[in-house]
Amino acid sequence: MKNIFTGFCLFVFISAPAFASSFILNYHDNTFYPEGDAATAGMGELVGISDIYYSWNLLNGTLTSTQTEWIADGKGGMDKALYDASFSYPKLTPENLDGFLPYDDWAGAAESFKNQLSGIEPKNTNYSKFDVINALSTNNMINNSVQNRLNTSSGSIWVQTVYNNLKELENDGFSSSSIGLVLGADGKISDSFKIGAGVYVDGSEFSIDDSDIDVANYTGVVYGQYRKNAFYINGIFNYGVSEYKELNDKNTIDGYSANLYVGYNITSGLVAEIGTHYTHVNPYDYKYSDNYHIKTEQSDYVTINPGIRYSKSIGIFNLSANLSASYLAYNDIGDRTEYLFDTYEFKVVRGEDKDKFGIEGGVDLGAKLGVLYVNLGYDYVRSIYYSDSSFKLSARSAF
Hints:
mainly beta
């Protein structure tokens, strides 16, 4: 191409996948470059090039270009070709920008890309609390399932299906729906002590901007209760692994939650209770592509939930309800650092929130059908980060 140069540039941020910001840099050269003499060229010969569009995908290093080509009409003039010409060049990096293409005008394109690189900032706040909120939602579902078991007088083998709808409240964030299954068994080891264990699995799809992410959660739980007359202490501990998949990209995190409830039966059916929940999330370092990877610090989250529970039995039916406030006592949601070409480093600060209050509640309707107890329930959580609705259907066999 000729050494005439005029043009302009454009930086475009494309909607990000779950774990990486997709960076694409664009450059448009609107100069006309003569490639021959239309007056003497034969019909169909290339005589000019214009409107060259470069697009550089920073994640895989691929540079693509399209250009308008002009061909001689055989009468001394020229016509625009019916189709634009397209080219693809792999492995473009900041280190080999200079001289990457053997064209005089490439120096201007390279300089434009350098300027655009220096101005890149992370713009993926919709994903900044994604892993933590998923862990908190899973912990809520498990706690609600186990609490119903611990507050029964006998041991049991039980199963529960859960349909959950989760939505982030900040940054026009994600939403998801999931279907899960809980299996558990528990029994008394003395008049005062009850212990149990279970497993929880679910599959969900998260929608964030234009991305759809499949998530699978696998969680094991152990729980127990100490009860003395009207006083009780419930303890629930769970450990889980979450696998995230978008197209061919996968990431895994693990974490655990410790939950303690202290309650007192005020009158028949009415219980005052306070719960404390600690959740720890441990993200793995994640390599999205050869050019891009992220590292997220561990996160810790503590809430305190004072509330009440009420239950009433009528014949074979039992109605129970619970309502509690939620107070964010400690929030250490770790920042995330993003590395592009191991040269450009960006930190997403996930931060402390000023609004620390939320609300949780639920209602269950149960019936005794022979040796089985069947329950239909609904739980709702609204916190500073998210709203969380769960519909539950469970069955247990007492022994």
